[in-house]
Amino acid sequence: MGSAACVTRSLRTLLRVLQSTQQESRILGFGHCRSIGWRRNDLLCSTKLPSLTLTAALHTGSPCCAIPPAIRVTEEPDTLYQSVAVLVKGHDRAVLDSYEFFATLAAQELGITIGKVYEPSKKIERFTLLKSVHIFKNHRVQYEIRTHYRYIELKHLTGSTADVYLEYIQRNLPEGVAMDVTKTAIEKLPDHIKEPLWSSLSMQEKPSL
């Protein structure tokens, strides 16, 4: 009980001190206003302290340290592919069905011409082993491994489009699925075979008159 009474007394004294300080601040502020009014007749008690307002700063501009990526313009022509064949293989047929749908949908979104899409024949490997390593050699067990395939052929691609598409589908390749890519590029005809060799030979073998 004694400690509670001491706490209440201290709280009361603290409250009185706070009230007295508030009254003194009000009186001092009014006197200051009157003194300013006597000194400057044109500003009678019109001096006010600057009001502080809290505003939320929303940064909408671009960061100052952001550097726009440099675009490289090269004179080297882009590689042209007549066809790009994507062969994926795995042991789960449902996973390959889902991945085939994903790969063809991505090609359609990129505007790539899709050629053949089919399922080659599956490969089956069987292993006959002993059921027990040491005894009962007449008891055997057979294991079977089935490998399913999907073949997707894309036609008439540029090198940049092929690189972007292949990187995208390879990053989303499921676990346990392998991929084999075959590219058929369109090359420029070399200069040494543009003209037939027999024309030059015939000119050399002509008898001089």
TrEMBL record:
One of its GO terms (molecular function) is structural constituent of ribosome. It comes from the Eukaryota. Residues 85-182 form the Small ribosomal subunit protein uS10 domain. It is found in: Mitochondrion. Its main location: mitochondrion. One of its GO terms (cellular component) is mitochondrion. Belongs to the universal ribosomal protein uS10 family. HAMAP family: Ribosomal_uS10. This is Small ribosomal subunit protein uS10m.
